[in-house]
């Protein structure tokens, strides 16, 4: 465990991975390439091939799956003279085996996926096999025996290895580093997409689930109604959603679309829930691991986003429960924040393990906290506390744990300039949407083709967002758009909530059914998308997939990247967005790509400005909102750190990898032995999700308690796994 460094000299910098040679061809194909062996079959190679390289065109898959060569591949001619055949074989060996050897031997004792298993989660079968590789046109056989063709015209390739399931050698395209090479902020660009609605259910993403249960408006109410419906499977219906909504083919298609990151929202009940909460707890965790392993297989980096917080951080339906904000607000605000810090800690411990560092370089610790309600000072105090807690686990400096992403709280990027100067690798995440701006948004988007397409919307995206994003790269540090969409208006079934009919009003009818869209409409949407991408630079579209409603239509098509690809209004190559704003005449202030060293984990990382520490270092904050006038904050309910810590288990693999493969135990820092928070025995607590109007305690409980809540983690015995 590390403490925040007091000077630049104390910053611990991990030795960076030696970059692989990126100048070699991305793929070697030859008519003489063997059809059943892999580079690992060579006597030269004595590793588990944990890296990306020059790849042959056909191999048995590492998860008992098989890749088949393209039907157009040529067979070697039978009339070739023996001497020519010999020299051909030598040339192939030099061109394929030797480069593969020098790239592949970079081993990182890993464990992978396509087939992770758990007692209640996804499983697979198979036998040990050599690693399987595949590029454009390869055939992938999934764990259930189904097959699909991997379409990737951008030089990307996948790697699947039963004997080294943490193989980080895959890459999604030629311009993105493989997972085991460094991502360079300011040089490499995020072209990403959210996997929304998979583990945190949203009505507009999975409308059929909510249509089935009238009265369900969020995951809380949906879970309550489902649990009572045992005849139709009860809460098991949610697990069925986990199993089927996103498949391996979806992740492969994301890589094939020229994208290189995914943002994966997850709920805190992946870890646990408390008895008064209705959620299906822990069941989604094996499926989260499955997605992470698929991302690894196809070379996609992951921004893992904690989307829900106990008590709700924003009152939105995707926070777990629609309504009140009970995080650092109201009578249970401090207690809920204690739980939140505990869950952030548990996730940070898991993804900081060497098996997961390359796949999850960014951890979003709280989605869309409503700063206007909670308070900027209060959120800053919490973020400083979370930063120090995470860096005490990971250590300081580049390579030590993930970047920490925080949302701008709908305050505008400029409000965060100079935030916690000297902190170690904090990312500012903004979610620019026109749909929720409060304007009429009635200006047409189907106005023509070419640069004239999209009406006012492309130019508006450039002028509103480009300069602000570029300025923030200097004023704050690494700044990304964690969400944006083609939703220039707020039309879409349940987009504004189940009980809001505005989003399906007659004026929205055109935008609820993409089968009505003509080429001009599609051209306008694509131009809007390109302008948004160019303005935002590092972005994640919200979202990859919208599920069908009960009448089998996609009723929020503006929000589906996948549907846009299929029907022609999303670019098949996101790189074509570059220069769109300039072509529209919008000249934005540019960022030169150079961050201050501390912002990317260099010298000074973790040496936070003493003024900030003095102003925000006290935790809990000296005051919180949502309390009755005259309330004594020291009497607020708090929890005690006396419960066993619920750790996140690693995946299990079928077949098991060799004993030399380190899978990890879900806990990176063995010196972090503090216990988890729980209710104090004998004390009565208000409803943690509905405590804004609860009576304020007039005395401490228990009477001997300290006058202010303590930090979530306090000294205690060792960690124990909960599932």
Automatic annotation (TrEMBL):
TM stretches of this protein: 83-104
Q: Where does the record place Low complexity bias?
A: 114-140
Kindly state which keywords UniProt assigns to this record, in alphabetical order. Cell wall biogenesis/degradation, Glycoprotein, Glycosidase, Hydrolase, Membrane, Transmembrane, Transmembrane helix
Gene Ontology MF terms in the entry: glucan exo-1,3-beta-glucosidase activity
Query: Cellular component terms, GO, for this chain's entry?
Result: cell surface; extracellular region
Q: A Gene Ontology biological process annotation?
A: cell wall organization
Keyword presence, Membrane: yes
Give the similarity note: Belongs to the glycosyl hydrolase 5 (cellulase A) family.
Q: What is this protein called?
A: glucan 1,3-beta-glucosidase
- Organism of origin: Suillus luteus UH-Slu-Lm8-n1
